[in-house]
Amino acid sequence: MVGTDSVWVVIPAYNEGEVIGEVIRGLRCAWPRVVVIDDCSADATGAAAEAAGAVVLRHPVNLGQGAALQTGLRYALAQGAAAIVTFDADGQHRVEDIEVLLETQRQTGADVVVGSRFLGSAEGIPPLRRLVLQAAVVFTRLTSGVALTDAHNGLRLLMRPAAARLRIEQNRMAHASEIVDQFHALGLKVAEAPVTIRYTEYSLQKGQRLDNAFHILLELLVARLIK
What we know:
Spore Coat Polysaccharide Biosynthesis Protein SpsA, Chain A; seven-stranded mixed β-sheet; alpha/beta; 44% helix
């Protein structure tokens, strides 16, 4: 069984100074090992994360969420993590859902457990955003062969062997689809767990604009063409 001290929580962050301290304090009550990758924020994100007790790694230039996740995975693995949870910085995720991911892993023996808001709950989700996310599910199933109900959920559990094999090359938001592609290519056993995503005015402002879905699709198509 994976112990609390062997689980690292990885948080990619960019200009999250308003909420990240609260997010980290909530996490560290149950999961003390938290690393924040400050992706060259222009505000006090790094200082707020340190004050809340997280380890903070800083990118000297803004590279994107995919690159921040890769930096965090490498760090957590170097610290001996047996399991790694990726967690968003904007307050959308619930701390208690980490235990849901772990329990699902214990029951299934999966290499990776992905949170699903569509098996769980999406509180306050705008109808158009729901439609776009569901379209992303169809696209991911067609292109990756992995049958997920929620393809772009930032709450994931990666067991150490799986995390060590991931190589995230898409620095920006296309990384979410790239990660699922790698699950399939690496032959990893993937399970889903019901989680809650809470949409707030802040998280909706921080989140990706809906027109970015077209840019993500373009990035993925280009990546496939050059491989």
